[in-house]
Amino acid sequence: MLNPLSLAYMGDSILDTYVRKYIILKIKGKPNRLHQLSKQYVSAKGQAYVLNVLLEEDFFDEEELAIIKRGRNAKSYTKAKNTDIQTYRKSSAIEAVIGYLYLNDETERLELLINKMIEITEERVNTNG
Q1: How confident is the model at residue 85 (pLDDT cuts 50, 70, 90)?
Q2: Among 12, 58, 61, 84, which one carries the catalytic annotation?
Q3: Which of 53, 62, 89, 116 is buried most deeply by CB count within 10 Å?
């Protein structure tokens, strides 16, 4: 089993790639506008919010919940940028699940998770403006 922070590192990259693809195909705007939009989907605050929603919905299976717990409890030696440590740890937890699914070639489950994350983020953004 890989270190949860290594899984989160991989998951961060995968999420960013999926979100960029989604935004480019949806918006077709200039890079600065695309970047501003993508931040809503990949920010630690946004990821922590999505994790809370998915946990309330019992979205994750037992194995994914174990990854979330390991990812959330992992001791990172980097400082959280623009957020508190709890939010940073929650975002690392969901990124760890993404990394885990990607590295285990669980593409269908990975895409289901990322699509749910995008859906929840869009609902939050549209509700909060």
Answers
A1: confident
A2: 12
A3: 89
